[in-house]
Each structure stands twice: as C-alpha cells, then as structure tokens.
Specification:
Length: about 170
C-alpha cells in the first residue's frame, strides 16, 4: 500500500522552495551564458577560459583564505570577538566555491566575494537581507526623536537628582 505524505508548507517550506527555484534559475542562466560564450569565441577557448577562472579561483582562495584564517587565529589568541573577520572568512569560502565551479556568472559573484576591495558589496546585500527578515525588536539600534512640547524644569544640579526626577520625553522612530 503506497501512501503519499506532503510536508506542511510553513515559512521554512516557502524559503526552501524559493532557494531551489533560485538555484535552478541560476544553473539555467549559467548554461545559457556558457553556450553564448562558446558560440562567440569557440568551444575550445571557452573550456580554456573556464579552466583559467577555476585556477584563478584556487589561487585567490588560497591567498585570501590564509589571510582570513590568520586574522581569525589572531583574534582568538587575543580573546577578541571574531566580528567581521568571521564574515570575511565565510565570504571567501563562498567566493572560492563559486570560482572553482564552472560557469561565468558564478565566477563574477565569486570574484566579488574574494577581492577585499569588492567584498563590501556582498556583505551589505547579505546584511540587508538578513536584517529584513528579523523581527523589529532584534534589528539594529533604536533611534529616538525628541518631541518636547514644553520646557522641563528640574533641580539646579541634575546630576544629583534621583532617578525618579529625570524624565526624557520622546517617541521611538521606526
């Protein structure tokens, strides 16, 4: 007896479906660009260009990866938070993977992740994407705008006043 069971579609199900769709469309775009480049410069040169970009990816991954791991090791020895160095290591790993895999679109995105000069762009895009998915309470700093309508009177020495006598009026701006 065969039964079919489908998983309930929640937010995680939609995300994985979108991810599969994006990966499929990306692979299709890679094939289309590869065929266009092969028809433009010839198959032999296209294969040679693919091998060259993969070799460049390995070289950049080795150089930038060594730097990133050295910085992470130094931060660990100094008992400092990894911060941006950990994000850079992740972007370098992603960029190296994209450069090593065949395809010219992935090579372009991998190059953006591997080069220190251009690494800020993918970092910004990923940070914005993650921040947009977070609940409001978990997003960055709160900005407060003052809307004082009348002057506040207080003691002559406000630094000696108790906590109940100091009031700051305002509203939280989204």
């Amino acid at each position: 007896m065969a039964t079919s069971w489908t998983a309930p579609r929640g937010p995680a199900g939609r995300t994985s479906s979108r991810l599969r769709t994006a990966i499929g469309l990306g692979a299709l775009a890679e094939v289309v660009v590869y065929v266009l480049v092969a028809s433009w410069i010839g198959l032999g040169w296209t294969i040679l260009a693919t091998l060259a970009t993969s070799a460049l990816g390995w070289a950049l991954l080795a150089r930038q990866g060594t730097k990133a791991l050295g910085e992470l090791r130094q931060r660990a020895e100094e008992h400092r938070a990894p911060g941006r160095a950990l994000g850079d290591a992740g972007l370098i790993a992603l960029g190296g993977l994209l450069m090593v895999l065949p395809g010219f679109i992935g090579d372009l995105f991998g190059l953006l992740c591997l080069l220190p000069v251009t690494r800020g762009l993918p970092r910004l895009l990923i940070a914005r994407s993650v921040a947009s998915r977070l609940p409001d309470a978990m997003r960055g700093p709160v900005r407060v705008r003052s809307v004082r309508t009348e002057p506040v009177t207080g003691p002559a020495e406000p630094y000696r006043a108790g906590p109940a006598t100091r009031v700051i009026e305002g509203e939280v701006a989204p």
